[in-house]
Write a structure and sequence with these properties.
This protein has 231 residues and is mostly beta strands. 3% of the residues lie in helices and 44% in strands. This is WxL domain-containing protein.
Amino acid sequence: MDEEISVIVYDKQIKFTKQGGKMKKLKLLAAVGFGAVSFAGLAGSAVYAANTANSTLTQTINAGALSTDIRNSSNAVVSNPTFAMGAVTLSTSAQTSTGTFGENDKRISVDNPGGANNGWTLTLNATTPGTGKWTDGGKSYKYNGTAADGRLTVDPSTGTVTPVIGTATGITKGSSMAFSGSNPVTLMSASAGADAVWNGYITGVSLKQDIPAGQQAGTYTLPMTQTVAAI
């Protein structure tokens, strides 16, 4: 007669049958209630906890917008900046007044945080191009006429370009030019070979205004606007 023997090993019951003096394993019963499984099944389904886990971080940096401002030496935007031309005395003859556009504490700045990869151009014009005038109340004279009736000449070649981020490679100052019609004057420009991320400024741009003979005394103003545009 066969004899069945039960053995408990690590909370698992193993049953053997003694047949003809030999022990024969019958089955393994899991004590935790998973039902009967084979040794081979347990070995194949073993799962071990990992002590490392991999992941990936992502970061997107978008290009910024091309812009221009007038900033002080602390890089703060200057509100309502003014640039005074030299005072003259009323004369019955035509005369000229000189000045400077862009000073150390009023820098003509450009910021290109990758917004114009093919270059850009910084220009200056009257806020109302073509029709603007030097005015003081009802008195006025032209900025875009002739030497006889009023003409403003801008010479960026006398200025100094100072890069803050990037280099001066590909940055060019404009040439001396008098305003005519509604056309702007180029202060400086960047070629496609300039740094795609660039920040800097120009100072010391020379100004010369031809004043008509007999122009009445007063404090005249001419609103101006600088514009930077991608090429």
